[in-house]
């Protein structure tokens, strides 16, 4: 023991170590940059040199088309955003309720539990687009009084039913991932079953399932385009209309750009949350 | 004094037809400290969990303060309000601060005001040397600190009986003493406790009564001094001989 914490001067050995580390950092950075440039050059060069490129450029990357279609596609995209914003909270509530119903142990609630199991099994099994058709076209055909007939509402409802089943399973997995000793500890303090769930199990479970939930929502954002199949004028439908006018696919590119602009921030946010949860768990976590 | 605080009579517990407790009888008077000793798997934890109704008993009866808590109509939540339990693995709630861990049951179960509950919690933290940890989250505390918080959490409901299940066996040796200190202090205050423990030195030091469990049978029971110096049962003697030999006590 030579130095106390406040008289610590970095040793020659440590300074050399830090210099070496800096040099390695610079070398790694230049290597990454160089390999990226070479990679891009090869890919772009390959595409541009291909014999079909001029016609592809014409059909898919026509700047004039892009500018012409973009305002309408953006207008349609607003419909996607609205469907998403309304469906998302409803899905969360539905998913949580179904997950809780599956956990009910009181024999009185057996029908509810059975219904919840049936719901998740059936609606996870049906392809989302089929469900959109069945509800969008089938429900109005029944001509029942009081049922909504707006295709946007029906399509949104189909998305809610489909995603609700997935989200219910995510919540259930989260609840089951909480160690039984947490429940024992809560019960031993005199908390009732419902209180243990509400104050001890659920808060931990919800925190744990935020990243997978965000993942499902990124996918929901894209699936709002399925509602277009019912004739709702949203981004994809607008792109289709423009595309048909001039036999040019560039409007689809405009729609793709908009969807990417919405999902990429969500994906980065999910990564950020997952990384934070990982860091939290790391030091001596249980 | 009118009868024992806790009376266990002919308690049976089986898991999948495998008997774990076989007709256990146990009496605990108010202010008495009882230590359960016995080999791993002898049923110590199971006995404590049965007393706290975390397990359903298969036969026999448990009476707390004159009320049979294993009676068909008894409300387990009411029973657990009167019994505190501390686990080997602390089981603090990781999403709550130390203070919220301690006040959860007083506020939600015992319907005390939050202010009052927090005051009481801070008082207990202060008394047991954790005053500066009130706002911390459990994973920022050492094992010994977590276990002390767990004991405080159980005590904050003013239980008439405290069950402690190997509360020191997950701890490094130097942390064991601080947890033992808190238990000793509770004893001095007259707390009634049942402890399952592998720490024979501690059991001898703190217990009024020691019970030796062997394969689900309460084989021998007596004052701590007698059990450790002149056990009657050959199996108790054998168990103590092996434990003391392995731990160089
Ligand atoms: N939930 C359970 N399901 C099945 N068997 C169990 C269960 N809990 C305990 N057992 C069995 O009951 C027996 C007694 O277990 P218990 O935990 O009460 O022993 P213990 O005396 O506390 O042991 P230790 O000193 O290792 O904690 C063991 O054989 C164990 O395998
Ligand atoms: Mg045990």
From TrEMBL, chain A:
This is Amino acid ABC transporter permease. Keywords: Amino-acid transport, Cell membrane, Membrane, Transmembrane, Transmembrane helix, Transport. GO terms for molecular function: transmembrane transporter activity. One of its GO terms (cellular component) is ATP-binding cassette (ABC) transporter complex. The chain crosses the membrane at residues 31-53, 81-101, 122-142, 252-270. Pfam families: BPD_transp_1. It comes from Actinomadura logoneensis. SUPFAM superfamilies: MetI-like. GO terms for biological process: amino acid transport. Residues 77-270 form the ABC transmembrane type-1 domain. Belongs to the binding-protein-dependent transport system permease family. HisMQ subfamily. Signal peptide: none annotated. It is found in: Cell membrane. Its main location: membrane. It is a multi-pass membrane protein.
Automatic annotation (TrEMBL), chain B:
Residues 6-240 form the ABC transporter domain. The keyword Membrane applies. It is a peripheral membrane protein. GO terms for molecular function: ABC-type amino acid transporter activity; ATP binding; ATP hydrolysis activity. Signal peptide: none annotated. PROSITE patterns: ABC_TRANSPORTER_1, ABC_TRANSPORTER_2. Gene3D superfamilies: P-loop containing nucleotide triphosphate hydrolases. It is found in: Cell membrane. Pfam families: ABC_tran (PF00005). SMART domains: AAA. The keyword Nucleotide-binding applies. Keywords: Amino-acid transport, ATP-binding, Cell membrane, Membrane, Nucleotide-binding, Transport. One of its GO terms (cellular component) is plasma membrane. It comes from the Bacteria. Coiled coil: none annotated. Transmembrane segments: none annotated. Belongs to the ABC transporter superfamily. This is Amino acid ABC transporter ATP-binding protein. It comes from Actinomadura logoneensis.
